[in-house]
Design a protein that fits this description.
The structure holds two protein chains of two kinds. Chain A is of the alpha/beta class. Chain A has eleven helices and 15 strands. Helix content of chain B is 80%, strand content 0%. Classes of the chains: A alpha/beta, B mainly alpha. Chains A and B meet through helix 2 and helix 3 of A and helix 1 and helix 4 of B.
Chain lengths: 323, 237
């Protein structure tokens, strides 16, 4: 592994710093003025719905795409002028399963290690260690073509980390994995952070973002709409309980929300999708019968729970993450 | 340092290639069936007349192999993955071209050996190396055509199919399977003509040298065009 960047002492603490970066594809503003400051050694989750600009942001940070405008500094190096220096120090796990189907699992990892000019002895030992951690050692010498989707996904992750990069980009690393395999990948990512790597994780899984990230950035339509720790973001919604229910009278949802807001302990209410309403009420669980009386509506499929990041996103955009 | 990366990538390309049964069949089966069919379905004289064209059949097929290789890398996203490592884009491109050039050379050698075994006898054996060298020069034109095709197609399947729209005209109009060539300026036609001269023992500048210069111009022109277009289509935006 290369020594950490000693180039600019003033940037030592920041792994990534961007200034008003934009990426336009003709009329589409995929990223529209993003400022990031990501501290070295942290795990930063970028949360947002499909098409929000997460992958485009990652591609710019990892030197694959050039920004239309704005400046990017990664590990103290300028993305436009010093891309090769950045490439020596980063690992990228793309959203797609980018593997060579006719090579074995071991060979797939080796080719990335070889591109980083690792010593043969080192990458061979490291490959075995990594394959073992992801429960792939038994299939190490099988061609990847016959692997299940989950095995390919795990291999996709390993190819990003074999050279022990200082900065890791994981773009939806657990998409399509079963809960058990997802936990294995999460533990793996945590291990890397504990070793001192900076990790950028994009996801549209609130659970993943909540569970792994030190800090969260919520992106929508190419812009940052919220930033902070999970608790800070959820705290902005208030301390109340979330009551979510379905109503048949969809044209009366506004009226129902207004009725709910007349209660002094109801902090906010929103329409969701075609039939549902979400309200936030202090001590909502205790006061549910009172709320039901006031709303004078048949509440179907009702759920009462604590705030989640989904509610944060809903509050900010009026949409669900998966809408 | 990129020489080492070039070596690793070329080895990787070869491993991928030899583990693909369809590609292996093309590499060894195509020269074999092509030569045997020519030798045993026509009278003796026809095989001798067509021998120069048959030697150029290998390089033309390379268009499909190269286009499929690069289109597959595009389709799989592996080019983009490699771009995030310290390897340069030109090394990635060169590794693909190098592995296909070696495949092309192997095919030419197989064609050559089969022809010689089946009775083709050049008049002047002192220049027998030209029987390899001339088709090898044509492979550069094929690489250019292959890259041009790989630049515009979305996947390996399309590349394999569309390649025949280039290969067949080059073969039929360029004297590979017909004699004389319909379009004598094509690289295949120039190569067939010069090979025929070599086999007849006429080694002059006009009969061979000048045509080789034209073949080289075709090769350089098409390769540069192919590299530029492919880099543009797959470049970092």
């Amino acid at each position: 592994m290369l020594p950490r960047n000693q180039k600019n002492v003033f940037c030592m603490e920041l792994a990534i710093e961007t200034n008003n970066i934009k990426k336009y594809f003709d009329d589409i503003h995929a990223v529209d003025g993003i400022d990031l400051k990501i501290v070295k050694g942290s795990l930063c989750g970028i949360l947002g719905p499909n098409g929000a600009g997460k992958t485009t942001t990652i591609r710019m940070l990892s030197t694959v795409l050039s920004p239309t405008s704005g400046d990017i500094s990664v590990l103290g190096f300028d993305v436009k002028k010093e891309a090769r220096e950045i490439k020596k120090r980063i690992g990228v796990c793309p959203q797609e399963l980018v593997i060579y189907p006719r090579l074995t699992a071991r060979e797939n990892i080796h080719i990335i290690a070889q591109m980083h000019l690792m010593a043969k002895k080192d990458y061979k030992e490291r490959t075995d260690e990594l394959l073992g951690k992801m429960n792939l050692l038994e299939r190490a010498d099988s061609t990847v073509k016959g692997f299940s989707g989950g095995m390919k996904r795990r291999l996709n992750v390993l190819m990003a980390v074999v050279h022990e990069p200082e900065l890791l980009f994981f773009d939806e690393p657990t998409a399509g994995l079963d809960p058990q395999a997802r936990r294995v990948v999460w533990d793996f990512i945590r291990d890397f952070q504990e070793k001192g790597s900076t990790i950028i994780l994009t996801t549209h899984s609130m659970e993943e973002a909540d569970d792994l990230s030190d800090e969260l950035i919520i992106i929508d339509r190419g812009k940052i709409i919220a930033q902070g720790t999970s608790d800070e973001l959820k705290g902005k919604l208030g301390e109340g309980d979330i009551i979510e229910f379905r109503v048949k009278e969809i044209d009366k949802r506004n009226e129902i929300i207004e009725r709910a807001k007349s209660l002094d302990y109801v902090q906010w209410g929103k329409e969701v999708g075609k039939h549902r309403i979400v309200i936030n009420a202090l001590d909502g669980l205790k006061r549910i019968s009172e709320i039901m009386d006031v709303l004078e509506v048949k509440m179907e499929d009702m759920k009462i729970r604590k705030n989640t990041l989904e509610d944060v996103f809903l509050d900010l955009t009026g949409r669900r993450l998966r809408d | 340092m990129d020489v080492l990366r070039l070596w690793y990538l070329t080895i990787k390309n070869f491993k991928s290639m030899i583990r693909d049964k369809a590609q292996l069949l093309w590499l060894f089966g195509y020269p074999l069936i092509f030569v045997l069919l020519y030798r045993f379905t026509f009278e003796d004289g026809v095989f001798d007349i067509m021998a120069p064209g048959i030697l150029i059949a290998g390089p033309t097929i390379l268009i499909m192999q190269l286009a499929t290789h690069f289109a597959e890398e595009k389709e799989l996203g592996t080019l983009q993955r490699l771009v995030t490592t310290p390897v340069s884009r030109s090394t990635i491109l060169l590794s693909g071209l190098l592995s296909q050039l070696i495949v092309g050379a192997i095919q030419i050698i197989i064609f050559m050996i089969l022809e010689l075994l089946l009775g083709v006898s050049p008049q002047n054996t002192a220049f027998i190396s030209l029987l390899f060298f001339i088709p090898f020069l044509v492979t550069f034109s094929s690489l250019g055509f292959g890259l041009l095709l790989a630049s515009v197609v979305k996947n390996a399947g399309s590349a394999g199919g569309i390649a025949w729209f280039i290969i067949l005209p080059l073969q039929f109009l360029g004297g590979v399977v017909t004699n004389p060539p319909f379009l004598p300026f094509l690289p295949t036609a120039l190569a067939v003509d010069s090979l025929r001269s070599v086999m007849e023992g006429i080694i002059t500048f006009e009969a061979v040298g000048l045509k080789l210069i034209y073949i080289v111009i075709w090769g350089i022109g098409l390769s540069l065009l192919g590299i530029l277009l492919f880099q543009r289509k797959t470049a970092i935006l």
